[in-house]
Amino acid sequence: MGDDANPLLDIGELPRYADVRPQHVSPALQQLIAAARGALRAAADAAPRWDTVIDPLDTATERLGRAWGTVGHLTAVADTAELRDAYNAMLPEVTQFWTELGADPALYAKYKQVAEHDTALSPLRRRIVAHALRDFRLGGAELVGAERGRHAQIQERSAELEQAFSEHLLDATNAYALDATEAEIDGIPDDCLQAARAAAQAAQVPGWRFTLHQPSYLPVMQHARDRALRARMYRAYVTRASDLGDAALDNSALMAELLALRDEEARLLGFADFAALSLQPKMARSADEVEHFLLDLARRARAQAERDLSDLRAFAAAELGLRELQAWDLAFASERLREARYAYSEQDVKAYFTEPQVLAGLFDLVHELFGVRIVAEPAPEALRWHPDVGLWRVEDSRGTLVGRFITDLHARPGKRSGAWMDDARARWRRPDGTLQTPVALLTCNFASGVGGRPALLTHDDVQTLFHEFGHGLHHLLTEVDDIAASGISGVEWDAVELPSQFMENFCWEWGVLQRLTRHVDTTEPMPRALFERMLAARHFQSGLQMLRQVEFSLFDLRLHHGLRAFTPQAIAELADAVRSEVAVVFPPDFYRFQHSFSHIFAGGYAAGYYSYKWAEVLSADAYAGFEEHGVLDPDTGARFRAEILARGSSRDAMESFRAFRGREPAIDALLRHQGIGQRP
Asked: Exposed (0-12), middle (13-18) or buried (19+): which is 475, by Cβ within 10 Å?
């Protein structure tokens, strides 16, 4: 099969996602792996210079990475059994190559020689080589004999387990449907009911069909007055991919084996546990430092969380007749309390956030702050794996292309839940001197429009969109030309969330909300009075939310720091122990959140989930810099772009923060932004 016939071998401007077929995967990947192995062999014998060692390797591995990333993205957004089989068939071989590359002793020695003898290296390239040498050590390049072989086995098996975890969760989510009768749907919003009616009709069943995908599940939990309906949905959701469901989709054994393999890997490399290994390239210096940070947040938030829960229980008992508040009542009672206390509901707000207007307002904000223009571009049919897919250009003030991004914003069967930004292509001044512009993938799972109306977003959805777009800006607005340090590549994992969480703050600014909102029926912007009620409710249950994130982070950290019995029972017991230490809300015995905790078991956040809170200190303090000069101040925006977004990993994240803020970060802004210590 020639390059023209196989879309995975096409390295044009945009990936040809829609043209990829399962039969393309193996031939393309085998060809690209062979070429990359050839480049690896040549590099080991080459003169120790950047242009003879690193440039040829980057060229071969970048092409391989793009092809494999295309297949991986399709399995996340357009999964089929045939594509999944093709992906899994190549997963061991692809994993083996990357493991070999990262642990190759001859290449490790060659990089050392480049560091010593290539006098033409720029400071940035010296930094890249130094980081590569660190990564060689962490990748097992100094292991020998049986330990080297065992390390490679661990990488291959871990990749298989992580993929299986993700597949089990997707399949368990897709497998469940609850068909409700008219007597059970009281209180559920009309747009959710329309989607549920359409789903039932498509399945040729009577009534309304609800699923565990967020646009269906969350409105039921927030608004359904039928308590038994909420209880059924809740139990199905929190037991996904667990021992309480389909045995073929149970993630219990996968989690235990993954943790054991990670611990073994760490010990092979000379670390006490996986957390110590994971923290090597991060900002945090030790697991003890992270734990102290998390427990300090828990301590600061606890009193407010207890007040939040006490208020909710009192309201539920007095106004809703719920004397025993159960887990499946929390979202419902919280929404009723919000309505009573602040005189608005999420449905009131949602009507103003039409997807086209939110996107237009976001792009307008980005233009004002960062000086780039975003325009829609016709998406080639070869790009569009689904009709929802959109393509956008990012241009500078002269109209020059900076990069592109691809959007896929709506939930559907066969698509992984959640929201994420990924890169289809990175910025790179290629060895031939041409500039490769970046391409980002922006994926969300919002509800689709129904009845010819545009999709409506909740305010939480809007914040999610801004969050992922912040990652996209980090990828797209980089000015670094070396691929190993451009965009988010090489940025410390606990600083990666800085731009994303920073962008969320604009969703609470009146000057921005005016641009984002047009009522779906009247086209009127959101009234100031409604915004003021939203603002008053901004810190609603902020203590509970803080403790929930601390609980997840501390559970992740202790899984990888100190746990020695790697069994499903030990994992469950640790979850209970962490919850008893920091939480104030306690779920039922059948709660199995760990079985769907894909961030740490399949998403790269192992011993790193704390990064969300760690980076939120940075992002809140960075946003405080905007508050001091005017949140829409273009000069401050230009400095943020130049010192944070443009820098990639060309310097330490803390150095970039200091360059923008003029000092080290302080936790005060985070506590203020989340209302911790303030009585609502």
From this structure: buried
CATH of span 355-536+612-673: 1.10.1370.40
pLDDT band at 678 (very low <50, low <70, confident <90, very high): low
Q: Which residue has the tokens 């273009």?
A: 634
- 167 is an active site residue: no
CA dihedral 407, 411, 413, 418 (to 10 degrees): 90
Q: Assign residue 645 a region (left: φ > 0; alpha: ψ between -120 and 50; beta: otherwise).
A: alpha
d(CA 416, CA 169): 9
CB 342 within 8 A of CB 335: no
Q: Which helix (H) or strand (E) holds 416?
A: none
CATH number, span 7-142: 1.20.1050.40
Residue of 100, 468, 492, 551 marked active site: 468
For the stretch 67-87, pLDDT in tens is 999 999 999 999 999 999 999
Beta-strand ranges (E) seen in 87-225 are 178-180, 208-210
Q: How far apart are CA 217 and CA 209, in angstroms?
A: 11
- Would you state the pLDDT for residue 451? 86
Task: Identify residue 402 by its one-letter amino acid code.
Answer: V
Q: At CB < 8 A and 24+ separation, what contacts does 501-504 make? A: 501/467, 501/470, 501/612, 501/615, 501/616, 501/619, 501/620, 502/470, 502/619, 502/622, 502/623, 502/640, 503/466, 503/467, 503/469, 503/470, 503/473, 504/463, 504/466, 504/467, 504/470, 504/619
Residue boundaries of the structural domains of the chain: 7-142, 176-239, 249-344+542-609, 355-536+612-673
The CA distance from 299 to 309, in Å, is 16
Tell which residue, 519, 523, 511, 471, has the closest CA to residue 364: 511
- Nearest Cα to Cα of residue 474 among 419, 433, 422: 422
Q: Do the Cβ atoms of 415 and 78 come closer than 8 Å? A: yes
pLDDT digit string, tens, across residues 480-511: 999 999 999 999 999 999 999 999 999 999 99
